[in-house]
Amino acid sequence: MAVCETCGGKGFVLVEEKKCPSCKGTGKAKSINLSELSEQQLNLALGGSCPACNGTGVTRVTEKCRECNGYGEIKECKVCGSHFGGDGDRCQ
Ligand SMILES: [Zn+2]
Ligand SMILES: [Zn+2]
Ligand SMILES: [Zn+2]
Fold this sequence. Notes:
The strands form two sheets. This protein has a three-stranded antiparallel beta sheet with strand order 1-4-5, with no helix packed on it. The chain has a two-stranded antiparallel sheet with strand order 2-3. The relative contact order is 0.26. The chain contains one helix and five strands. By secondary structure, it is mostly beta strands. It binds zinc ion (3 copies).
């Protein structure tokens, strides 16, 4: 069992970083319609941070790591010795 090097053990990889459309990349909550937010998002917005991007100004597009199948770790198959990500101790 080893940490997947492709995703660093996170189970997903970053595909793209985009400017946050809600705050237009500023990370500020000023221009956001507060009535549409959940309570948690509202707290962020009242603190001045954009709830869509947590105030970072960027949104991240991620996808499940194909190397480890989203598990974040690579195992060695007990049967054929190949490396795989998933439940159990064999690849299939
Ligand atoms: Zn934002
Ligand atoms: Zn991985
Ligand atoms: Zn196998």
